[in-house]
Write a structure and sequence with these properties.
Blueprint: E1 9-11, E2 14-16, E3 21-25, E4 32-37, H1 41-60, H2 63-79, H3 81-92, H4 96-116, E5 123-125, E6 132-140, E7 143-147, H5 155-167, E8 171-174, H6 181-193, E9 200-202, H7 208-217, E10 221-227, H8 230-241, E11 246-250, E12 255-259, H9 265-277, E13 287-293, H10 297-309, H11 329-344, E14 348-350, E15 364-367, H12 374-377, E16 384-390, H13 393-401, E17 405-406, E18 408-412, H14 416-425, E19 430-433, E20 448-449, E21 452-453, H15 458-463, E22 466-474
Helix pairs in contact: 1-7, 2-4, 2-5, 2-6, 3-4, 4-5, 9-10
């Protein structure tokens, strides 16, 4: 029995029980893990009110005190990492080794912001005359509301809540209805670490529209942060406009992965495996369109095909599992529709597309992918690799940039001049250069164009929860 498994919303340091409940299911078996409370309107409003009261205490607290509390939270998360990982694999499906890695990665945000809490520096500004002293200070924004997705149920929470608390802000979180259990466990551990009551509230609901409307319309909520699809992000931005909220939006991606003919091809294929198949391809920074220079395409394809053929698809708790289930059966239906469209329009399929049952999807490679195919333009969120050839740098840059998204991009090259040219030319917020795994708590994570607004991680992530106030003193 996992003693971090809870089933009710968490408000003001207590569990909030409602009669209406919904099932959280194991994507590997489709069996129910827990029946959890579905928050009502009164519960949402209570959470906002409690967060507003908590903010009064938080903004008056010292940075050192918040730092120490965050450090205790980090220690508790690490102490309970096995239980958190098991909970994650049950509700999200990813292999247990990946789940353990995510818990440690997510804890890294708590540790980083426990240190950054003491570094929200202002400025002394040289005045234009001798009669004034000019400066600026940074202060917490206020109550923050956030919505997080199902693909990283620990890390998506900690990289929002940790910097908010470090800045002195309270938080109302609505996690995905598919993976709410990790968020509850994190809130419980935060409470055990000494968080101010009401500073971290978790609302469980299948009615995301109702909760989202209440959070975005509230005058008491001064900042809104969301990770999810671009379409939902656009709707939430419109809702936030009525009260002029500060927003952070980490939205969809369509990441290019470029392999130039001068690259270390073995390293490039290894990086591609990490960038494409982590979490069964269900990441916003997953390699979506794989561009390979024509002169090395067959070599890369042979190496890549061998690696993909060795991947094991199974329950996340099974030994040596590489790829777990997709989050729900409808996700596999979408993948099959994309594959059918691509093959009908001329793509070739490498691998066995047999039905593995439930939400399990075999890893596959598509070659001869063109912009006429739906899969070229959509965020696939599955272990499907789309391969595209190119002849020169200018051509591949035009193809890579010709999408409305700009979250992450990757390329492999051993030409230092090309490295700088391509890195600067790619219209993306993050670029992996000879590296397939780029996320790091100490670095800013976020996109451009329709992939979002703002940054999470790094010192920039703390600034997202701070307002800058200018002070002008006449002496």
């Amino acid at each position: 029995m996992n003693n971090l498994l809870f089933s009710d919303s968490f408000i003001n340091g207590e569990f909030y029980v409602t009669e209406q409940r919904f099932s959280v299911d194991d994507p590997a078996t489709q069996e129910s893990i827990a029946y959890v409370s579905d928050i009502d309107k009164a519960g949402v409003e209570q959470a906002i009110d409690c967060a507003e009261q908590a903010f009064v205490h938080l903004k008056a607290s010292s940075a050192t005190a918040r730092s120490e509390t965050l450090r205790r939270w980090y220690d508790l998360v690490i102490e309970h990492k096995q239980l958190l990982a098991e909970l994650m694999t049950k509700e999200q499906g990813k292999p247990i080794a990946e789940a353990l890695g995510e818990v440690e990665y997510g804890a890294g945000f708590i540790k980083w912001y426990s240190e950054q809490a003491k570094r929200s520096y202002g400025d002394t500004i040289p005045a234009t005359d001798t009669a004034h002293r000019l400066s600026s200070i940074k202060q917490p924004i206020g109550v923050v509301a956030g919505i997080t997705p199902w693909n990283f149920p620990v890390a998506m929470v900690t990289r929002k809540v940790a910097p908010a608390y470090a800045a002195g802000c309270s938080f109302v979180l609505k996690p995905s209805e598919h993976t709410p259990l990790c968020a509850l466990a994190l809130a419980y551990l935060a409470d055990q670490a000494g968080f101010v009551k009401g500073a971290f509230n978790v609302l469980l609901s299948e009615n995301a529209k109702m909760v989202g409307e209440l959070l975005t319309s509230s005058d008491k909520v001064r900042k809104f942060t969301f990770t999810g699809s671009t379409e939902v992000g656009k709707q939430l931005l419109m809702q936030c406009a009525a009260t002029i909220k500060r927003t952070s939006m980490e939205l969809g991606g369509n990441a290019p992965f470029i392999i130039f003919d001068n690259a270390d091809l073995d390293a490039a294929v290894a990086g591609l495996m990490a960038a494409k198949f982590r979490n069964a391809g269900q990441t916003c920074v997953a390699a979506n369109r794989i561009f390979v220079q024509r002169s090395v395409f067959e070599t890369v394809l042979d190496k890549f095909t061998d690696k993909v053929a060795g991947l094991k698809v199974a329950d996340g708790f099974a030994e040596a599992t590489d790829i777990g289930p997709l989050i729900y059966p409808q996700a596999k239906d979408k993948v099959q529709a994309l594959l059918k469209d691509a093959v009908a329009k001329g793509a070739s399929l490498i691998g066995d597309n047999k039905d593995l049952g439930g939400s399990f999807q075999a890893p596959l490679i598509l070659t001869d992918v063109t912009p006429e195919m739906d899969i070229y333009h959509q965020e696939v969120f599955a272990p499907i690799a789309s391969m595209i050839t190119f002849d020169d740098e200018a051509e591949v840059l035009a193809m890579a940039n010709n999408v409305p998204y700009g979250l992450a991009a990757y390329f492999y090259s051993d030409n230092i001049k090309q490295v700088y040219r391509v890195a600067e030319a790619l219209e993306y917020g993050m670029v992996g250069i000879n590296e397939g795994l780029i996320s790091n708590p100490v670095a800013p994570f976020g996109g451009v164009k329709q992939s979002g607004l703002g940054r999470e991680g790094g010192h920039q992530g703390l600034d997202e929860y701070l307002e800058e106030k200018y002070l002008c003193i006449k002496v």
